[in-house]
Amino acid sequence: MTAPRPLVYIRPMQGTARSDGGLVGRSVARLDGTGKVTGAALYVDDVAEPSAWFGATIRTRLPKGRLAAVEFDPAFEWSTVVRVTAADLPALGVKVNGVMCLDDTQPVLCDGVIRHAAEPAALVAAPTSALLHEALRHVRLVEEPSPATEGPPLLTLDDALARGAEVLTSHAVRRGDPEAVLAAAAADPALLVLDGDYTTGHQEQLYIETCGMVGGPNPDGPGVAVHGSLQCPYYVHKALKHMFGLAPEQVVVRQDVTGGGFGGKEEYPSMIGAHAVLLGLAAKRPVKIVYERGEDMVATTKRHPARIRWKAAFRRADGGLAAARIDVFLDCGAYRTLSPVVLSRAILHALGPYRCEHVAIDGKGLFTNTPPNGAFRGFGAPQVAWAYERMMDRAAAALGVEPLELRRRHHLREGDVTPTGQVLRWSVGSTAVLDRAEQVAGWTARRAAARAQRSEAIAAGDALRRGVGAALFFHGAGFTGNGEVYLKGRAEVELRSGGVVRVLAATTDIGQGTRTILPQIAAQELGLPLERVEMEDPRTDRVPDSGPTVASRSCMVVGKIVQEAAADLGRQLCRRLEQARGLPEGALARRGAEFFDGEERVAGWNDAAAGAEGLRGAHVYRHPDGVAFDDESYTGDAYPVYGWGADVAEVEVDTDTGEVRVTGIWTAHDVGKAINPMVVAGQIEGGVLQALGWALCEEVVMKDGLMANGRMTNYIIPTALDAPEMVTEIVETAYFHGPFGAKGVGELPIDGPAPAVAAAIEDAIGVHLTALPMTPERVLDAIDAGARPKGAR
Length: 793
Fold this sequence. Notes:
7-stranded mixed sheet
């Protein structure tokens, strides 16, 4: 592989972030790194549970029908194991047979009606793995297909659209009068009208560690306890409270070291956690459920398949958008789970980072008889980014405008207005990332070299064609709309013995570096060395609810809460020191622990901390002043701030086989402030590679409502050998409401690579691809069909 290129940091493009040149902005080694590389870190299946039994789930096979019975073979000695069906739930204390997410319509165990294949129908636990597997062989589900009068199951999004499937969720955005502009556009020679229809399929998270939970009676008191591989302890806490009707203190949830999530361990651990607890209550001991890879891939959530339809009028004079009508359809699967908020983010990003005064965006999430789809890195934004960037390439080609020039003319800038009426007021890095990506990629020279290579290849009869393409994109950081206001996330910073500070937050580390960057923020605010700061393990009986580890919010939102909590602790300690020295309040410091800077830092800190063990600083999230969103009309500030990114991709296409090789990708991301540049670069490069898999090779094959290629041997993801040369540029346009200027970064990198690669393929072979993934078969079909952009008039 090509040796990695050095990172380039652009300091700062707009404004300056508060930083004293200490820990913030330094690539300190990850605090959890040693344990993970040496094997000392304990994942759920490593945690010693001497009394724990082994559990498993028995699942339906029909995509639509009725569960008539669960039959237990009388030839087996059932007294040696425990078993649970829906009929047993009341006796185990269950008040609601539903997994509470946004609603509780998804049953914990199938209640008779089968809405998708792989619904959990029965649970079994045994003292040994061998006995468990023997017991499972003696269970039979009696499933009856639905009567023909009800029609066949809806197995795809196309089925749902063609047959008028139930709409599980919907949202709409309006600005101006797009219908009037579009109606007049056909007869207006100054306008070019383009239609586009773009599709994306499922994507499997394929985290390194499969789902696993241990649950049962709480060993420390009344109620239940569960621990395992998860992103959001308080999601599981909420689900178990609702299911059993328990008080908050009667449910304890703990995160173990977690081997990746990407959204796949956001809502689903509530289901597997509920199953482990049910078996644990039945067995009167902990029960461990760890999915094998096949079950994990078949039964758990995936990225929503999508169809996005565009109709837009572009001004011929300058290529700007005069009006756009966009329809977004998502395949929810059989239950809503998180689909309403995935759809919400999708429609709020559907126009892309471009100006347009007349916009209509409608989104619908449709029912299908397939396992529910849920959170996946990007959360609806990658699907619509695929469509809006493909449309911009369509417009550039039709108008004869260079692709980057079209984007440069019309992208959103500070002071511009989004479709919801949000005025962009701060940290708008759109121009900076576009300029930087163009510069580091050597766009003009690279495009010219690709043209020369194609000419030579055609003359020589060579099948390989090179092309270069680009994408511009943005991503709302934090929860949509009023999500953070409703949540009121809280964090605390506690003084421990020896002057050590402990960060108390429910934010989990699933590989993205939270256990390093939050201590960095606290240490920087308090003026302490990093070794004086540690993090409490995320468990609901010890840490406050700072919110879930989702939505690119961990650094920006929780980091800011931690910074303010640390400042609160610093103020308290300064006051203690003032009192001890007989000084008036405020004599030593007006904010935080500024007194502890300089030569007296350690001595001053030790004096103030002496005897103050247990003292806590705390803070609750506060929305920036003037940021407001109307949930009913879908108008206002959809996000307090956005991250911005630009990608340039170079590909080589084999016109004989349809294979596409990405030879390089140059990317620039505006992250506000890189708290830990190495961690930020890792997030960007990991997201880019994950996006390249979605773009080119990751295809979930569904058969009879189930994933048919649920193995790592036939669900193909890119490996390190497939990674192209990556040049990662970190751009900083400070967001003053984030910790030291930081914004979210986790999801932004996955939005741009697919359309950038598609643009490069189009540059190479002249075909306009509209469906993901762009497998060799799809590329060959497009070549054979002589595909060109359709719908222009």
